[in-house]
Automatic annotation (TrEMBL):
Keyword entries, A-Z: Signal
Database matches in Gene3D superfamilies: 3.10.450.50
Keyword Transmembrane belongs to the record: no
Native organism: Paraferrimonas sedimenticola
Protein name: Periplasmic L-asparaginase
């Protein structure tokens, strides 16, 4: 009986931690949207792991490293008109363990002449400074 009580306590504890992680990840992504919609790509990039091992896959290319991803954003979105207004629709946050998660969602930009949109899969890692995107595959 004692083992069962301990098991239930562990499950409830993990559930509470999973809820906290889920909320922290949602806040991180909402902060990204706010930064983007303010025209602040540098703040948008704070959600990404600032490391040469960051992987970013988009437009048929694989980029490695925070700097490479940042430069691609600056090149592809040189001004507020190109940036448009961003929104995310998070479809899934799957906590793999206490420190890693996968997020699947949809993105959309609303711009003067078009409304590009697509799907993304993110792998996030919890570091001492909080959750960061370590792998981004956006189509």
């Amino acid at each position: 009986m004692r083992t069962l009580v301990l098991l239930v306590c562990l499950i409830l504890s993990f559930g509470a931690k999973a809820d906290d992680a889920n909320q922290q990840i949602r806040v991180l992504l909402q902060t990204q949207v706010k930064a983007w919609n303010s025209g602040d790509i540098e703040s948008f990039m704070e959600a990404f792991w600032a490391d040469p091992r960051l992987r970013f896959i988009s437009r048929g290319k694989v980029r490695y490293g925070w700097q490479s991803a940042y430069e691609a954003y600056l090149r592809n979105y040189p001004d507020r008109d190109a940036m448009g207004r961003l929104s995310f629709n998070i479809e899934l946050i799957d906590l793999l363990n206490a420190d890693q998660a996968i997020v699947v969602g949809r993105w959309q930009l609303v711009r003067k002449d078009d409304q590009p949109n697509g799907i993304f899969t993110l792998v996030l890692q919890r570091f001492d400074g909080g959750w960061r995107i370590i792998h981004d595959h956006t189509s």
